[in-house]
């Protein structure tokens, strides 16, 4: 099995390899820049928004590869908000949240 790079950008790669005659496309991304951005945004975020505008709050920065994986698996956030809230509130994804509260 040979692996070929379709794209090889700094921090993000897309490869293709064939297993049993079928193509397997793999996308990987370095999440460290996204985590750093979320941490920086969390330092700058107000602790509480005034009035009833908390529903417009920036809650997370998700790496694009992970976002597209979730999109393929669970559909648009507006069509499956419970699952997307569960994903964003998951302890393993806490590094992507911009603030400490639940979504």
Helices, strands, pairings?
Layout: E1 3-9, E2 12-19, E3 22-29, H1 32-44, H2 64-74, H3 81-89
Antiparallel strand pairs: 1-2, 2-3
SS element count, helices? 3
| Count of distinct strands | 3
Please compute the radius of gyration using only Cα atoms. 17 Å
Output mean pLDDT.
87
Low-confidence region ranges:
none
Principal-axis shape: elongated
Count of domain modules: 2
Helix and strand content put the structural class at: alpha+beta
Lateral arrangement of strands in the main beta sheet: 1-2-3
Percentage of residues in strands: 15-25%
Q: State the assembly state of the protein chains.
A: single chain
Largest sheet: 3 strands, antiparallel
Structure description:
This protein has 103 residues and is α+β, with helices and mostly antiparallel strands. The protein folds into two domains: 1-30, no CATH class; 31-45 and 56-103, no CATH class. It is 32% helix and 22% strand. The chain has three helices and three strands; from the N terminus they run βββααα. A three-stranded antiparallel beta sheet has the order 1-2-3, with no helix packed on it.
Brief overview:
This protein is α+β, with helices and mostly antiparallel strands and 103 residues long. The protein has helices spanning 32-44, 64-74, 81-89, and strands spanning 3-9, 12-19, 22-29.
Salient structural properties:
103 residues; alpha+beta; 3-stranded antiparallel β-sheet; 3 helices; elongated
